[in-house]
Amino acid sequence: MPADHPPTGLRQRKKADTRRALSDAALALAFERWLDNVTRQDIANVAGVSLRTFNNYFTGKYEALAYRQTERMRRSIAALRGRPAGEPLWTAIAHAVLEPLQADLHEATADEDRLPSRGELAEVRKLLMNPQIREAASRELLEDWRDAIAERTGTDPENDMYPRLVVAVVRAVGDAAMDTYATADPPVAITELIRTGVASVAAGLPEPAKPGEQRGRRGGRCRDLRRRTKRADAGLRTRVGRHPARGTRQAIRTQCRTKGQWSCWAGCPDAGHAGPLSEFQRR
C-alpha cells in the first residue's frame, strides 16, 4: 500500500484497526508495567487477539510500540503533498507534522496540548532511549519524506542534497522535541515544542537572547551587556561599563529615563540606533 494513501477497503481498514489496537495496547502496558516487563502475549491479551495474530502484524513489541508514530509519519507525508503549492516550505512542513499528531492526541485525550504526568514522562524517557524503537519508527519512511520534499521544491531526490538535508532537519526537530518533552520540568506540550522547533529552523536558527540582554530602539542588539547604573542627575541617568572594542571603562549620559530608553556606547557596532552622547568620562 503506498505510504501516502490511507486504507480504503473494508479488509484494509480492519487490518489498520487491529494494528492500532495492538500498538495502543503495547503503549498502555509500557506505561503500566514498564517496557521490560511487557511481552508479546501480554499485548495480544490486552488487544483481544491471539499471539499468532500479533505475529502476523508485528515482529516484536518494539515495532508495535513504534507503529503509531510510523503511521503519523505516513499521514504527515500525505498532508505535505496536499498543502497549497505557493505555501512556504517550512509552513507546509509545520502543518503536515502537527495535524496528524494533534488528531491522535485529541482522539486519545480530547486535548492536543495536554501536559504529561511525571509518571508518563519517566516512561517516555525510557522509550525514547531505546534504539530499537527509534529505528523501527523511521527506517521505512525517510525516502518517502525525501521524495515529497523533492516534489515540492523541484529538486532531484536521487542527486540533490537539498531534499535529504530538509528531511534530516525535520527528523532532528522531532528528536529534539521528544527529548525535551521527556525531560522538561515543568512539563510542556509536545505540540508546542514542535511548533517552536520548526519556527526556529524557518527563522534560520537565530541565537537566543542572553539573560539581561536589551534591544536598541531600532531592534538592534547592543553587544555591550555588562553596563550598570552609576548615578542619576537632573532626570538623566549615567551607566558605567566596558567598551567591547576598546577595553576601556566609560561613563555616558543616556536619554531621559522617563522615555525608558538607553543609548549605546560611542563606537559600538550598533551605535546607529543610539542618540548623540552628551558626555564622556574615562575611568
TrEMBL record:
Species name: Mycobacterium shottsii
Q: Does the keyword DNA-binding apply?
A: yes
InterPro entries per UniProt: Homeodomain-like_sf (IPR009057), HTH_TetR (IPR001647), MftR_C (IPR041347)
Keywords, ordered alphabetically: DNA-binding
Q: Which protein, by its recorded name, is this? A: HTH tetR-type domain-containing protein
One Pfam family per UniProt: TetR_C_14
Residue ranges flagged as DNA-binding region: 39-58
MF terms from GO for this chain are:
DNA binding
Q: Which residues form the HTH tetR-type domain?
A: 16-76
Q: Does the keyword Magnesium apply?
A: no
Basic residues composition bias: which ranges?
217-230
Q: Where is the segment annotated Disordered? A: 204-233
